[in-house]
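Pipeline run #58 for the internal structure catalog. This entry was flagged by the ingest filter as a single-chain record with no existing model, so it goes straight to prediction. Upstream metadata was stripped on purpose; only the residue string is passed forward. Reviewer on rotation: M.T. Logging verbosity set to normal.
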Amino acid sequence: MRLQRTIKKEITFHGIGLHTGKYAMVKLKPASRDTGIVFYRVDRGAIIRANITSVVDTAFATTIGFVNGLDVVKVKTVEHLLAAAAGLGIDNLIIEVDGPEIPILDGSSTKLVGIILEAGIAKQGKKMPFIKITKPVVYEDAHSRIVALPYDGMRISYCINFGHHMLGQQELTVNIDEKTFVQEIAPARTFGFLSDVEKLRANGLAKGGSLDNAVIVGDDGILNATGLRFEDEFVRHKVLDSIGDLSLIGFPIQGHIMLEKAGHTANINFLKKLITSIDSYSLISSEVDHLPHHVLNYS
């Protein structure tokens, strides 16, 4: 069991959101132990904890929000930043943002990793609990399947299968640690199909998307002049998204997570299935023997 970690100093970055197209400034700030990951919409005065109880939308991105009367204050597309934090073992962090969406930057987590490393990583004087899978947990819906199996470490296996000759079926299994995340997962960019762009924009999405922050797949191939960063960049990005989404359970997971054609919705629904399968995991900690009420009370 490792010590909790935060960053050593404040650091900022800025850019446009992939879906809203709106500019935002983000400040990452150190947080005391046991804080967790907390977003603060400085323009709306709303605090939003990064856990599954805060998820309000999973269409094409993971959106967390805070219900304020009849209004819902949201932060959209949090998964890449959450993945960067989880991949580097950052447990406690304040994320101040003055807009509705986390900037997409280059569409991956590489720049976010660089920002966190520039801020520095500080160990804190308390152990970090983790969830240990002890029995299989299975989530299935009409399109997706996610299985968690006992494993000594964090392993992710992902299978995608798109009806496009450029993608087809891609599979990847990777043991997740700081090194493999930074080198093999973080650089993988978000992707989309040219045929879907107009439809997405008609529905208020992908307003900030471009060849600078997404891999665009056309009928005849990749439109990005720079090509792909990995031959299987598409499945690697799905692993990246899943790391960010899975971190919303609030603790590192020790186990083998196997995902088939899973997106943000399936990832969140799997977490809900997992935390209610109380005979299938243990929360390993010298101080906590059950998941906190705010995690269990997701409905």
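catalog note: The chain has a mean pLDDT of 93.
catalog note: The CA atoms of residues 75 and 95 lie 11 Å apart.
status: ready for reviewer M.T.
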